[in-house]
Amino acid sequence: MASDKFFRLVRSWLTIHLPRSRRLSPHTIRSYTTALNALLDYLRQTQKLALAEVSFDVINRSTITGFITWLLESQHLGASSANQRLAAIKSFLSYCAGEDPALVSIWLEVTQVKPARTPTRAPDGLSMAAVDALIRAPGQDTSRGRRDTTLILLTFDAAARIQEILDLTPADIDTTIGAARVTLSGKGRKSRTVPLMDKTARHLDQYLSEFHPGTTGAAGPLFFTVRAGHRHQMSQDNISYLLNKHATAARQHCSEVPEKIHAHQLRHARAMQMLRAGVPLPHIKEFLVHANISTTSIYASADNQMVREAIQRAGSATPDLAPLWTGGDDMILQLAGLR
Fold first, then answer.
1. Residues 222-251: what's their mean pLDDT?
2. In total, how many domains does the chain have?
3. pTM of the model
4. Of 165, 156, 175, residue with least CA distance to 216
5. What is the distance in angstroms between the CA of the first residue and the CA of the last residue of the chain?
6. In sequence order, what DSSP letters do the residues of 294-324 get, joined into one string?
7. 130-143 per-position pLDDT tens digit
8. Contact at 8 Å (CB) between 59 and 103?
9. What angle (nearest 5°) sits at the alpha carbon of residue 81, between those of residues 78 and 85?
10. Which of 43, 142, 255, 258 has its CA 20 to 30 A from that of 265?
C-alpha cells in the first residue's frame, strides 16, 4: 500500500473526523497527533524508514508491541502515557478500517496489543495543612494575590482539572451563599455542576467585582492575563508557574508542602478529604466524574496505605499511636496535519 494513502488518512482523521465528526477538543487532537508523531519517530529510528516509506504494510501487532516497549524503555514514558499513545493508534486504525475494508485485518490485529501494566500507586495529593498553606500564600494585599487565592481555592473546592478551570467564564459561576456552584466542562465536553463552599463563593464574589465589574454572564475567560491591552485565557504554564511560586512561600510556614506542585494534587487532596469525611466512594466517583469506580477506589487504597505507614512509625518509636494524617519529511508531516 502506498505511503500517500497512509498520510492521506492521517490528514482526514486529524483535520476532519476528530474535530468535525467527533467534535473533540483541540487539546485531545494534539494528544492524538503526538501519538502518531511518536510512532513515526519509532519507525524512523528502529526500522530506518523515511517518511515516504511509511505505509500500512509496516503496521502490525509486532510493530505496535515494539512501539510500546520503545516508549517505555527508550523514551522513558510512564505506562499510563504509553497506553494513551496506544489508544490513539488503535483509534486511528479503527477509523482507517471504516474508510477502507482492506485495512480491517490490520486494525483487528493491532487491537490484540495489550496495554502496558500500570502500577497502582497512591495519588500524590497534598495534606490539608499543605493545602491551607498554599491557599493562604498569595495573601490578600494585592489584586494578583486575591486572584491567585481565588484560583487555588476554587480548583481545590471543585476538585477541578486545570483545563476545566481555564475554560471557565463568569457565566459559569453562581456565588449565592448557601447555593453557590460552578459549572465545569470536562473531558468529552461533558458539563457538570459542582456545589461550592460559602467561603469559596465569597472569594469568587470579591474576585468578580474586582476583575469583572458589571460583566456577570460574560463569555470571556474567568481567569486571564493581559497582553497588549487585551485579555487572554491563562495557559497551563501560567498556572504551574503561580502554583510553584506560592508553594515556595507556603513552604516557609508548612514543611508538608512538596518541592514541586501541580494542579492535579489539589484535586487528589479534595478527594482524600471527602473520603476521610465519610463521603461514600460512589458519591466521590460522581463528583470527580470518573468513568469507573475502580479509579476512585485508588483513594481508599491510598488511605489504607497511610494508616499502615502511620502505625509502623508509631510502633518503632513509642507504644502511643502517632497521628494518622500528616500529610521532504517536513512537507509530508505538514500535509498530513502532523505539524
1. 91
2. 2
3. 0.56
4. 175
5. 23
6. HHHHHHHHHHHHHHHHHHHHHHHH-SSPPPS
7. 999 999 999 999 99
8. no
9. 135
10. 142
| Residue-number span of the structural domain to which 101 is assigned | 3-119
Question: Which residues have a Cβ under 8 Å from the Cβ of 160 and sit 6 or more positions away?
Answer: 154, 182, 184, 194, 267
Long-range CB contacts (< 8 A, 24+ apart) of 135-143? Answer: 136/250, 136/253, 137/246, 137/247, 137/249, 137/250, 138/246, 143/210, 143/211
Number of neighbours of residue 165 by Cβ within 10 angstroms: 23
The contacts of residue 28 (CB under 8 Å, 6+ apart) are 18
Same domain, 298 and 152: yes
For residue 221, the domain's CATH number is: 1.10.443.10
Q: What is the pLDDT of residues 143-188, one digit of tens each?
A: 999 999 999 999 998 888 888 999 999 999 999 999 999 998 876 6
- Given a cut of 60, whether residue 317 has pLDDT beyond it is no
Q: Report long-range pairs for 19-22 (Cβ below 8 Å, ≥24 apart).
A: none
**Of 26, 8, 2, 3, which Cα lies nearest the Cα of 95?**
8
**How confident is the prediction for the chain on average, in pLDDT?**
82
Residue 308: its pLDDT value, please?
46
Residue 20 inside a domain? The answer is yes
The residue-averaged pLDDT of 85-107 equals 95
Give residue 263's pLDDT: 87
Backbone CA torsion sign across 272, 277, 281, 283: negative
List pLDDT tens digits, range 244-299: 999 999 999 999 998 888 888 888 888 877 777 776 666 666 666 655 545 545 55
What's 222-250 look like in SS3? CCEEEECCEEEECCHHHHHHHHHHHHHHH
SS3 letters across 161-203: CHHHHHCCCHHHEECCCCCCEEEEECHHHCEEEEECCHHHHHH
102 & 185 share domain: no
